[in-house]
Design goal:
The chain is α/β, with parallel strands linked by helices and about 325 residues long. About 45% of the residues are buried. It folds into 2 domains: about 120 residues, ornithine cyclodeaminase, domain 1; about 180 residues, 3-Layer(aba) Sandwich (Rossmann fold). The protein has 11 helices and 17 strands. The protein is about 35% helix and about 25% strand.
Length: about 325
């Protein structure tokens, strides 16, 4: 059940809708999110200032991520605490606050981790729809946390994936995600070495805490890899050799031009991130000619949170 602040019915007097994780997810179906992301990439009114990342004592970070269009302004305010990985505390906590531009009122308060997980999966899904040679899989997921779950849901629902291979440093998490995949009607198996599975999987998602390289083998020539775990210069999931191999023999696409500051995998590979097309280039200009494996490097952007807020706000205030 939604938790609502205020009970007025007049749009000028009612308080904002405060949505918990389940209600936030219900208002962010993947197909609708993908459509909204495409619309946002074509919307010249969208403004996304640089995000603030404030280091915190103990190794965490505070993220302040604003964005706006003609109707609404949002700020995502979250903490990222890597030390929480493997505990009962989430690594990402916080909210997305949605304001009406004309009145200045708060319209919505969305669960931040749910927005992050679902909009990231939707961005990967959009990239796969444009760039994956074999979007139906089989799918290899490396990392069995919240992002692994949402990417599984999105790819099964919208790409028709029927088989998934799962690798995680936590065997219990991998088995749990495999059970969830089977509940979705998908054939699933757990492996200990994701590199060995690359030969069988043309569709790959890496969504680990990005504290160490998890993939170093070369992928299939028809592979599509969405790497979403690393979103700072020091984080990494893919080996430099793997990134350089795809840059030489295939196609690298980044989610936004901000990846030049944040794409740890590409930065640590010594690649000039600015030379690569962005997802907006792919959607709004022309698809790159695909002659080999594709790496889609996603680092996150408040514009994706704005797309999620637009989707949720439309469902509550049609």
């Amino acid at each position: 059940m939604s938790t609502l602040i205020g009970t007025g019915t007049d749009a000028d007097t009612a308080g904002p809708s405060l949505l918990n994780a389940d209600d936030t997810a219900a208002r962010l179906p993947y197909a609708a999110l993908v459509r909204e992301i495409e619309l946002l990439l074509r919307d010249d009114a969208v403004q996304v200032p640089a995000r603030l990342v404030q280091p915190l004592p103990g190794g965490g970070s505070l993220f302040v991520m604003p964005a706006l269009d003609r109707r609404i302004a949002i700020t995502k305010l979250i903490t990222f605490t890597p030390a929480n990985a493997g505990t009962n505390r989430p690594t990402i906590q916080g909210d997305v606050v949605v304001f009406d531009i004309v009145s200045g009122q708060r319209r919505l308060i969305l669960d931040g981790p749910t927005v992050t997980a679902r909009r990231t999966a939707a961005v990967s899904l959009l990239a796969a729809q444009y760039l994956a040679a074999r979007p139906s899989g089989p799918l290899l997921i490396v990392g069995a946390g919240a992002q692994g779950r949402t990417h599984l849901e999105a790819f099964v629902q919208e790409l028709g994936v029927k088989e998934v291979v799962i690798a995680s440093r936590s065997d219990a998490s991998a088995r749990s995600l495999a059970d969830y995949a089977r509940a979705l009607g998908v054939k699933a198996r757990v492996v200990t070495d994701p590199n060995a599975a690359l030969a069988d999987c043309p569709l790959v998602v890496t969504c680990t805490p990005a504290s160490a390289v998890v993939l170093q083998a070369n992928p299939r020539p028809d592979a599509f890899i969405a790497a979403v775990g690393a979103f700072t210069p020091k984080m990494v999931e893919l080996s430099p050799d793997l990134c350089q191999h795809i840059a030489r023999n295939g196609t690298v696409v980044v989610d936004t031009s901000d990846a030049g500051h944040d794409a740890g995998d590409l930065i640590q590979a010594g690649l000039d991130v600015g030379q690569f097309a962005t997802l907006q280039d792919v959607v709004c200009k022309s698809r790159p000619r695909l002659t080999g494996p594709v790496l889609f490097k996603s680092c996150g952007w408040a514009g994706w949170d704005l797309a999620a807020a637009r989707t949720a706000e439309r469902s509550l205030h049609p």
